[in-house]
From TrEMBL:
The keyword DNA-binding applies. The keyword Kinase does not apply. Residues 1-58 form the HTH lysR-type domain. Keywords: DNA-binding, Transcription, Transcription regulation. One of its GO terms (molecular function) is DNA-binding transcription factor activity. It comes from the Bacteria. This is LysR family transcriptional regulator. PROSITE patterns: HTH_LYSR.
């Protein structure tokens, strides 16, 4: 079993085609076909199910893919570990919840790229649970999420606190207290979002029940609020980034507790200069 075979297998699994994998790896399709067949012979299982002219990864292939990702991640780590003092370079895969990616990271990403041009930074957004899963599986080098949870194989450190604002259209009229929200529609991310949980706890403490429409996009949420269809609870960073310019007004309430955003990384990831430089910049940017 060779690293080249494992890399070819992973690439085919990702793109779903030997021809596209060959383009991505800059080699001929016949080479990939032969190397994967040799790998299947060595393992004694079919890694792909051949359906006409297409390929579909087999159940055994799915199992092997998890190990392939770990093997390749450890290989990359080994290369970095031999020169820990090197200038940060190479790929850096960071995950972030949308509020962080939209409201807090744009300026930092531009600054990071200017300071470390040799780092190929990839930013992925998703739910906090998916981002942590991807970090455990080495598909991400680290993730920023708005939950503080114990997770096997992961370490974490607080980055910043996100203040929460209730936003409404300028045509909505002033919101002096929670009683002004009676019978109003609230637009929020689906269940599982920590900011939605903060809203639900606040409403519960105030004894108020409001209809909540689930939208998995801050753009859609801000659009609905801007149109006067209802209100929403958003992180201050999202409001400052584009809700304020969309004809929305932000209201602060002492009862709305700020939510910590933390950075998670794999405890066995070892030396990773690019990731460590990114965390240092996060601290520089956000930690007082």
């Amino acid at each position: 079993m060779e690293l080249a075979q494992i890399r070819m297998f992973k690439t085919v699994a990702e793109v779903g085609s030997i021809a596209r994998a060959a383009e991505k790896l800059f080699c001929v399709p016949s080479n990939i076909t032969a190397r994967i067949k040799a790998l299947e012979a060595e393992l004694g299982v079919a890694l792909f199910l051949r359906e006409g002219r297409g390929l579909r990864i087999s159940p055994a292939g799915q199992t092997f893919l998890a190990y392939a990702e770990k093997i390749l991640a450890l290989t990359a780590e080994a290369k970095r570990a031999v020169d820990p003092s090197a200038e940060p370079s190479g790929p850096l895969r960071i995950g972030a919840i949308e509020s962080s990616a939209t409201g807090r990271l744009p300026r930092l990403l531009a600054k990071f790229h200017q300071r470390y041009p040799q780092v190929a930074l990839e930013l992925t957004t998703g739910t906090w649970a998916q981002l942590l899963d991807d970090t455990v599986s080495h598909r991400l080098d680290g993730a920023i999420v708005a939950v503080d949870v114990e997770r096997s194989q992961l370490r974490r450190t607080p980055m910043y606190r996100e203040e929460l604002l209730l936003i409404a259209s300028t045509s909505f009229g002033p919101v002096r207290g929670i009683e002004d929200l009676q019978d109003k529609t609230v637009f929020m991310w689906p269940q599982g979002c920590p900011y939605r949980a903060a809203l639900e706890h606040w409403l519960l403490r105030q004894g108020l029940s409001l209809p909540i429409v689930s939208l998995a996009s801050y753009g859609a949420i801000v659009g609905c609020v801007s149109a006067g269809a209802g209100v929403a609870l958003v992180p201050k960073g999202v409001f400052e980034q584009y809700a304020k310019g969309a004809g929305c007004v932000g209201y602060e309430f002492a009862e709305l507790t700020a939510v910590d955003n933390l950075f998670y990384w794999h405890e066995n990831a070892g030396v990773h200069p690019a990731r460590e430089a990114f965390v240092a910049m996060l601290r520089e940017e956000f930690v007082a």
